[in-house]
Amino acid sequence: MAQLRPGPNLSRIATSLGVSVATVSNALSGKGRVSEQLVGKIREHAAELGYVPSQAGRALRTGRSGVLGLVLPDIANPLFPKIAQAIEFAAASAGYGVLIADSRGDVSAQTEAINRLVERGVDGMVIVPRRATRISAASCPVAVIDTASTPGNTVAADHWQGGQLIAAHLADLGHKRILIIGNNPESNVQNDRVGGIRSGLCPGMSAETLWIEKLEHQAGSGCPLGLARKVEEGFSAFAALSDLQALRVLTELQRDGIDVPAEASVTGFDDLIWSAVVTPALTTVKMDMDAIAEIAVSALLNSINTGRTREGTLVTAENDRVPMQLIIRQSSGPAKPVQENLQMENS
Amino acid sequence: MAQLRPGPNLSRIATSLGVSVATVSNALSGKGRVSEQLVGKIREHAAELGYVPSQAGRALRTGRSGVLGLVLPDIANPLFPKIAQAIEFAAASAGYGVLIADSRGDVSAQTEAINRLVERGVDGMVIVPRRATRISAASCPVAVIDTASTPGNTVAADHWQGGQLIAAHLADLGHKRILIIGNNPESNVQNDRVGGIRSGLCPGMSAETLWIEKLEHQAGSGCPLGLARKVEEGFSAFAALSDLQALRVLTELQRDGIDVPAEASVTGFDDLIWSAVVTPALTTVKMDMDAIAEIAVSALLNSINTGRTREGTLVTAENDRVPMQLIIRQSSGPAKPVQENLQMENS
DNA sequence: CTGAAAGCGCTTACAG
DNA sequence: CTGAAAGCGCTTACAG
Question: Which residues form the HTH lacI-type domain (chains A, B) (predicted)?
């Protein structure tokens, strides 16, 4: 009655070859206690039969599931594909599977998602927390991907340095007045980016910050950002804190007849999928997600293998900051000379 | 030495309560062979101890892992968040976990990804195949999400009907000449959408199709699409076969000083995350991913539970076509009267 | 170098 | 209504 996998198991291979299951197990796992000749014979036969080891049996015996959990605040987040891909790749390279869990918004769902993963017996998990959530202890090692500003150790891109990259780029292009455009002033990531930009401004440059969420709170969701007026006021560069906002900025400017980058430069963050596709293509700052995932996963594996702190939250080794990288595309260009627009044209 | 989960197990609960493990198991699983009183006591005690059942033990015994696999052609695909979210939700609602696997491009990687999932003991899997791939048998039930044009049974959005929705919308707005913009002429999904659009044209309307891939093959990746000229030629509506292309179309038009939607309408497909964010917001056709995921997952669970065809590929019940839904936003509007541009202004 | 045996935690007939 | 026992497939000391 029990729905058992129809495939062969160790014991079938063993009897069929007239050896013990222990020997088959050893031969297959390559622990080296079996004669080379026998190893060859066993492996060959196993392959012939299409033997697939039972994770369940192994997990029960070893206490390891070989699976990592990935908890996301909201899968709909456009950054998610990159995160998931990078984590999946890092995990698969280490022979681990990845179980996903979406916390769909609120914090209680996040806790539930974590519990679901624990129940499934993950050996560890990577959590991208909801804004400013502190992760309560899960009964397995946990690596958190977030800003340095989040309490506890985390791995993350160096958002501050990323901001400085933007500032330096805009300074190079001769921009003086910069409008920083963010979504949510509560976001640690966004605040780090703002801090980086501001700290990287050269003498003579100034920046203001526009928070879309605040604006929409008053003017309604999807309201115009009033950027044309900002251009008139003398802002020549619009530094969005994410490509999603950059896209909004770019299209609003273009809709209002402002040429990008001739009249205004636009930059973003994250190098999301569409950033290279729009016209003009978006200058942006990219996280090294593969590196971040690699650090998170190897910290997890380390902790799993050494067995330290198997209970209770265990975070990554240090506050790792992975450098970001500037990608210059067509949406940013030299600032127009401020007062004498038409001179210097052919210089 | 074995790294066993430190938490309590059935036997600990049993001895601590002076009953048998069988009784504890029955009480917890609610099979109803235990007196209500005892059930209460056992449950309470289990909760106190923070008992979490071992999936490994259960899986080994029942032959079910409680996990479904999700194989994706490329996680970087912007549609992925919606698919993953919908599948995760449907699976979680049914008490299943979701293991992801990225086939990162080529077909061999897809086979590997499927194998990895089988090795992890998934009870079934959902596959979003690479373009025109036929899924080779995996040793568990498989549901395929793709177009009807793919060989074998699949679940999918009704892309053809989605195309008709676009055609009807553009007809309503008085558009006569439509430029369909696709990425890849090999894509079944895109071809279905084209077919739907063409079949839905009213008398007096005509459509041409522009394949970006072909154009880029000649003119280089990221080349201009030459849409301004198309507007001059009399095309008043640009129907992209995906929001990603729609975004490219929209920004190129705007960059070239063409007002959307006053001078040209733009529509897309899929309602991707940024579609509502751009200015003007994108009119698009949306798949009902939740419905699609629900169908795929329940077909899988059905097959898992009835135990039919546990070996070999098993696909979903019928070729299920889930209707798409038109979302009208600001990027589409009435066609300009063709010849007499300035008349009728106040009609 | 090879094998016999124990046991991971669970569920499920089967007795009582 | 409750319990004793078997067994899912594996790995790992321990003997030989």
Answer: 8-62
